[in-house]
From TrEMBL:
This is Uncharacterized protein. SUPFAM superfamilies: P-loop containing nucleoside triphosphate hydrolases. Keywords: ATP-binding, Nucleotide-binding. One of its GO terms (molecular function) is ATPase-coupled transmembrane transporter activity. The keyword Heme does not apply. The keyword ATP-binding applies. InterPro entries: ABC_transporter_C-like, P-loop_NTPase. It comes from Cryptococcus depauperatus CBS 7841. It comes from the Eukaryota. GO terms for cellular component: membrane. PANTHER family: ATP-BINDING CASSETTE SUB-FAMILY C (PTHR24223), FI20190P1 (PTHR24223:SF415).
Length: 119
């Protein structure tokens, strides 16, 4: 199993209702990590996330389909712990072949616009 680097450590946000919080980072990785935690696509390795003093683990999660901007591979495996061959096997299961031609971009590297608008 691949070890994943901790991207966020000791982050606290306190804001009033309807107040917006903007996260600014160099690589977009922190913003992506926050979204992944909120949507529970990755597990916390410590601490907790609360909204209105309620742990997000106990909140009802909307099961609507969602896609993040990034690559197809990042959307299939947000934690980045799977090998490309494993991700390609997933694509085969849903009848989407990944390209293997030399010089041709892999479907895993294909860009996904926010909410999958370019698909």
């Amino acid at each position: 199993m691949t070890e994943v680097e901790l991207l966020i450590n000791n982050a606290n946000f306190n804001n009033t209702p309807e107040e917006k919080v903007e996260v600014v980072d160099r690589t977009r990785a922190d913003k992506r990590s926050l979204a992944q935690v909120l949507f529970r696509t990755v597990e916390l390795c410590g601490g907790m996330v609360t909204i209105d003093e309620e742990d997000v683990k106990h909140m009802r999660l909307d099961t609507s389909t969602f896609l993040f901007s990034g690559s197809v591979g990042e959307n299939i495996d947000p934690s980045g712990t799977k090998l490309d061959v494993q991700l390609n096997d997933i694509l085969k299961l849903i009848h989407i072949q990944s390209s293997h031609s030399v010089g041709e971009k892999s479907k895993l590297d294909s860009s996904v616009a926010n909410e999958g608008l370019n698909l």
